[in-house]
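Subject: design request, 257 residues
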């Protein structure tokens, strides 16, 4: 049995206004029993505008669901119109922040250096980064998947202390599997997550590599989660589309039952 506590995270992306967010969070809470959280962490990552409302319902009902965000700026404050800082998220009891999602990299020009700065900002505010990596279809077909992901992981973790790396989460999300219904086979997902762990071992040592949690993301559904979670190096899932529906997401979180 792994020492790593699995983490199932729902990345809502740009879906659900704050009224919908409250309903979805409450439904998810009702669908999950106490035993579903035994040895499994569950987090939801609503848009910024929902965070305060979701934090309030989680707190009022003492839910075991952890609150997460989808992004932050690397600076603490300043003239960065439209941005939100890590300390602002920490004040809202946000526990986990996704950084370097492939949509941020592809659509908003985030580089490995920016991702690295955000990882450090999240850690400095005592939150846990979920640092994303993943290759495009062209890179996979060219046989470059491992090299691409290794360079993202090296870049994202540069200068991060080994004990901080140990407490982080890294999400391996092949871009060709995101929102396409085309999941990586559990063997491919396992091989890539093992490759990520060996890069972590290289840059932060074996103790950190043993502790870091590695999620798989990309068309995770109630029907494929159990098989993915049975793989030795897969410690959780980062779920997009299927996390929007509380029934589906609850089934994914309760993958052991
Ligand atoms: P889907 O689960 O919709 O493929 O999205 C995956 C993802 O990008 C989660 O961050």
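Subject: RE: design request

Done. Sequence follows.
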């Amino acid at each position: 049995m792994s020492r790593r506590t699995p983490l199932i995270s729902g990345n809502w992306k740009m879906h659900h206004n704050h009224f919908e967010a409250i309903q979805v969070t409450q439904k998810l809470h009702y669908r999950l029993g106490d035993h579903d959280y035994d040895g499994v962490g569950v987090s939801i990552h609503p848009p910024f505008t929902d965070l305060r409302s979701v934090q309030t319902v989680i707190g009022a009902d003492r839910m075991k669901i952890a609150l997460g965000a989808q992004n932050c700026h690397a600076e603490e404050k300043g003239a960065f119109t439209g941005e939100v800082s890590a300390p602002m998220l920490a004040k809202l009891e946000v526990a986990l922040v996704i950084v370097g999602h492939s949509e941020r990299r592809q659509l908003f020009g985030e580089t490995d250096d920016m991702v690295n700065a955000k990882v450090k900002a999240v850690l400095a505010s005592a939150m846990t980064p979920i640092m994303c990596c993943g290759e495009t279809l062209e890179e996979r077909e060219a046989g470059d998947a491992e090299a691409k992901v290794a360079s993202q992981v090296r870049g994202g973790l540069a200068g991060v202390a080994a004990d901080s790396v140990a407490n982080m989460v890294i999400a391996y999300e092949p871009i060709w599997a995101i929102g396409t219904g085309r999941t990586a086979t559990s063997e491919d997902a396992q091989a890539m997550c093992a490759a990520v762990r060996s890069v972590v071992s290289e840059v932060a040592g074996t103790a950190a590599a043993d502790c870091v949690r590695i999620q798989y993301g990309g068309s995770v559904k109630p029907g494929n989660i159990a098989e993915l979670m049975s793989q030795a190096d897969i410690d959780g899932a980062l779920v997009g589309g299927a996390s929007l529906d509380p029934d589906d997401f609850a089934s994914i979180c309760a993958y052991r039952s």
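Residues 11, 101, 173, 178-179, 217-220, 238-242 surround 1,3-dihydroxyacetonephosphate (CB under 6 Å).
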